[in-house]
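Let us work through a complete example step by step.
Step 1: write down the sequence.
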Amino acid sequence: MELLSIGELARRTGLTVKTVRHYADRGIVPPEGRSPAGHRRWSATAVARLDLVRTLRDLGLDLTTIRRVLHRETTLAEVTTAHAEALDVQIRTLRLRRAVLTAASRHGATQQELQRMHNLAGLSARERDALIDDFLDQTFDGLDGFEGIARSLTPELPDEPDTTQLEAWLELAALSRNPSFRTVMRLLAEQHAALRDPTTLRRDPIATVRDKAEPALTAGINPRSPAAESIVRAVLARYPDQEGLTAQLETAGDPRHERYRELLSAVNGWPSPERLGPVTNWFLTALRSGRPATPSQPDQPE
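Step 2: predict the structure and record it as tokens.
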């Protein structure tokens, strides 16, 4: 059997003599013989052994672990499985860090804001749920029949979120902790509850306004024109409390409310929501244009 010198072994593997000597000294590729002069020699099997060592090193395994594999103290499958799991954790950590840095750069975050984003990124799934539950509990506390709406406002960050979802979660979480935004959401829920009549099958006022006014907005109808009057009358036929309806539309028009919906869709992987601002603004303009503000027909369930 032909035995290879350290120089020949290095040439066949593409490694340096210094690296082969280091591996030999660590017991990873022990020599299989000696020359008459006492120099170490290896068989051709050492070439395949060193190819495996180089592959495992490229994958990030340390020499101690590689030596255990080569000496059959553990199996290659066990080592690669454990290493893959460790890499998964590192990848998730790097994604979170990238999301924090990207969001901080995009929004020009201060040192304090960067720290808050970093803290939000590090929350566990249970801590994220607790944060959102607290936000929704404050929004709908004491109001009956809002369970479905609360569920529709709940972000669910997946186990393997992409960068877009992570960035959206960071902004949404910060928004849900904002006291003034919580006040807006609570007011919107109370206004909705005041307009809702459980004895009739009426739709959400905002949805009704959107359905009635959006075609007119798309068609380019001037909200101050006579053509807008019939739309105002149709909505007021269902929601005659003009003051309450106006208040709810104004609250719903808060840019942060619309931004929450956009972020929620991004986190949950939903299609981007339709923008409410242009439609509610069109209707409010029509409502305030001086046209008759009383409904022309009795309220009817949909």
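Step 3: interpret the result. Residues 77-115 form one domain.
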